[in-house]
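FIELD: query
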Amino acid sequence: MVKRKLGEEKGSVMVMVVIGLLVIMGFTGLVIDGGSAYLTKSRLQNAADAGALAGITVSSANSETEARKFTKLNAVEHGADETTVIAQYIAAGGTPTTVNAYTEAELTEMKDDLVDDLEDMTDLDIINTADEYSVDISGYTNGSGDNRTFKTTSKTLEEITEEVKNELMEWSGAELMNEATALGLNQSGWTTGNGKWQESKRNLCITTILATTKWHNEISKRLAAASGTNYKSLVIEMIAEAQIEDLRSEQKTTTPGNLDRLKVTCTRTVHNSFMSLFGFPNSTVSAFAVAENSGWAGDALPFINLDGYPSTEGEDLEAWNKVGPGDKERISNDDLIVSPNRIQVEYLDGITFKKGKVMSQIKNPLQNIVGVGKTVYLFSVKNTEVDNYKKKAAKELKNGDIIPLSDIVLLECIVTEEWNGTVLLPPHNVRR
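FIELD: result
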């Protein structure tokens, strides 16, 4: 009985051998592929550490480039081996928030300053500013192009009378006859025998109507109103309203803490060898490191130089310079991240130029940044492109225009004067 049962289990050893081989192959796959993932993780961590430490020591404008440079030096290639490197600043004190750049109370206070700036401009500059803000002033100016002037601030009796007469010329015959009836005028000279209107008598009818007391008073009232009209003041008010509306739409991003931490994340896809035989997909391995710099790292100032820069080291350069009537070299609040001690410029999509000199809550950060002897960074239009951005040139800047990165360089500068509304900066080095 026992002999027969053992005979029925022939071949069971082969099954156990196959199972054993599969187990051995599985462990081999875990050792090889797991070891590869562990080694990759270790390399990525070393690279992330090096990238974060390198990136935090430079301007935020250069931090990602510097971080990628040092991750590569630590044996992490980019792109070809499916490794990605991301560098991003994080606020130590909280999450960034985006709100309107100006409160309604601030906008109300700004309007008087905007009006004052406009009143200091020439008439032609005011007219051109109206064009930049799409304010229709065609009814308040004479001439065209650079020959435009404001219309006179009063009208003659003849001009007002002609305006009223032209309005009556637009009336229908029935309307004129009704008005004549209301005024008690004899209409027999303006109609045919059966009482129908004669179009040929329109001028005579209108002249008679205008001679009545009612219409004489209407002309006098309009003349008095026109004599008190100041078209220049009216246009300035319209422009200021348009500027306020533009500022109302501007956004700002603020952080409750300082922008002093840089996070570098390295991610790579690890291709399985043995484990792929069992249907296991490739794995993704990531490592990150955060480096902190308690001091300001030299972020770019919230201005863009439009006047060119010296070609030699040590010559003075003025930032936030006046570039037009009421205009400073201002970067839009939409492109800024402001914290109590630092300012970042988001420049990857180009620099957004804004008209006017109004800035949002930058005075305190600038006073911390712009100290004598400190190194700062300033965006500037390339010297080869400066003439193209001047008035009437091909790239003349309008409100809200974007200056592409291809036309921009980053200047490394040393501060020579404390912040007082303008800054004198001698270039130390020019970087693309």
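FIELD: remark
The CA atoms of residues 30 and 275 lie 7 Å apart.
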